[in-house]
Amino acid sequence: MLLRGFSADALTYGYLMHGLCRMGQVDVARTLLNKILSPNIVLYNTLINGYVASGRFEEAKDLLYNSMVTAGYEPDAYPFNIMIDGLCNKAD
Questions:
Q1: Helix, strand, or coil here: 85?
Q2: What are the residue ranges spanned by the domains of the chain?
Q3: Which range is the signal sequence, renumbered to this chain (predicted)?
Q4: CA of residue 29 relative to chain centroid, distance
Q5: Mean pLDDT, range 15-42, rounded to an integer
Q6: Sign of the C-alpha dihedral, residues 85, 86, 88, 89?
């Protein structure tokens, strides 16, 4: 897409990151997030969900409290619900 002169928007990056996370490629999704000039809260939540789904809660917490807040986004209920749901499912 980029080679043909098209620019990707946040929705495109979101789909790519969601697919990568579903395939277990969370680290690749994180690298992609780091390359985006101005990621939005949806992209952060997508990656947090990917980490939680992979059982990588510390990295999800680090992304939530460090990267997301540093980027200027105040976490709302959604990322915390992702974390709580993942921790509850882990206890099963």
A1: helix
A2: 2-90
A3: none
A4: 7
A5: 93
A6: positive
In the three-class reduction of DSSP (H, G, I as helix; E, B as strand; rest coil), residue 91 is classed as coil
pTM reported for the whole predicted model: 0.88
Q: Which amino acid is at 69?
A: V
State pLDDT tens for residues 32-83: 999 888 899 999 999 999 999 999 999 999 999 999 998 899 999 999 999 9
Phi, psi of 83 (to 5 degrees): -65, -45
Look up the CATH number of domain 2-90: 1.25.40.10
What is the DSSP annotation of 24-81?
Answer: T-HHHHHHHHHH-SS--HHHHHHHHHHHHHTT-HHHHHHIIIIIIHHTTPPP-HHHHH
